[in-house]
């Protein structure tokens, strides 16, 4: 089949997924990161053994079944929970625009995660400032929150990141 068109040919639009430039972050805005991530036994076992955290509360089902407060189940490694909460934010916030993680603070795990729970993440932008020593970059302070499928908060953390600016410090054009 042959198709004939008249006029100028239409150019295809391409869109590349990326995180936000420094100038696109707004203090007080909360970003919801979807979809969530259902955590499996394999996720927990692999992460726990790769990171040499061989606590029985993560690996030993028989032991966990005897412990009060564990609901008869092994707990998901809290570092997996934190890593996944931050990971869920990457596509929306920092993909290709982050320079470095500068540090984490105020990390808490107020409720446990279990195999089969689904983890949802949200991030609040706490502050944004251009770097004085790096004119093409700036610091963004973020509060990450992880919730399970019931809406219970299972993880919180404040993270400082160094992010690329869209424009140089002198206001001249794009940096990339």
Would you kindly provide a brief summary of this structure?
InterPro entries: HotDog_dom_sf, MaoC-like_dom, MCH/BMMD. By secondary structure, this protein is of the alpha+beta class.
User: What's the structural domain tally?
Assistant: 1
Report the CATH superfamily.
Hotdog Thioesterase
Rounded average pLDDT: 90
Helix content: 10-25%
Going across the biggest sheet, name each strand in turn: 1-3-4-5-2
The percentage of residues in β strands lies in 25-35%
- Overall strand count: 5
Q: Tell me about the biggest sheet?
A: 5 strands, antiparallel
Provide structural commentary.
- InterPro entries: HotDog_dom_sf, MaoC-like_dom, MCH/BMMD.
- The structure is a single chain.
- By secondary structure, this protein is α+β, with helices and mostly antiparallel strands.
- It contains 4 helices and 5 strands, in the order βααααββββ.
- It has helices at residues 41-50, 56-59, 61-65, 78-93, and strands at 30-38, 98-108, 118-130, 137-147, 153-164.
- A 5-stranded antiparallel sheet has the order 1-3-4-5-2, with helices on one face.
- It starts with 29 loop residues before the first strand and ends in a 12-residue tail after the last strand.
What's the structural blueprint in terms of helices and strands?
Blueprint: E1 30-38, H1 41-50, H2 56-59, H3 61-65, H4 78-93, E2 98-108, E3 118-130, E4 137-147, E5 153-164
Antiparallel strand pairs: 1-3, 2-5, 3-4, 4-5
InterPro entries: HotDog_dom_sf (IPR029069), MaoC-like_dom (IPR002539), MCH/BMMD (IPR052342)
Family: Belongs to the enoyl-CoA hydratase/isomerase family.
Protein name: MaoC family dehydratase
């Amino acid at each position: 089949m042959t198709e004939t068109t008249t006029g100028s040919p239409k150019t295809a639009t391409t869109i590349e997924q990326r995180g936000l430039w420094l100038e696109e972050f707004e203090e007080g805005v909360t970003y919801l990161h979807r979809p969530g991530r259902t955590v499996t036994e394999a996720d927990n076992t692999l992460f726990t053994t790769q990171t040499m955290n061989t606590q029985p509360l993560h690996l030993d089902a028989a032991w966990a079944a005897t412990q009060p407060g564990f609901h008869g189940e092994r707990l998901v490694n809290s570092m997996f929970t934190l890593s996944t909460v931050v990971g869920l934010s990457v596509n929306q916030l920092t993909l290709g625009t982050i320079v470095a993680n500068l540090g984490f603070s105020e990390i808490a795990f107020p409720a446990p995660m279990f195999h089969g729970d689904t983890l949802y993440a949200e991030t609040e932008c706490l502050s944004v400032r251009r770097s004085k020593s790096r004119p093409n970059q700036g610091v963004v302070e973020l509060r990450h929150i992880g919730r399970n499928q019931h809406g219970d908060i299972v993880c919180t953390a404040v993270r400082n990141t160094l992010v690329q600016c869209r424009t140089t410090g002198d206001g001249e054009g794009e940096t990339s």
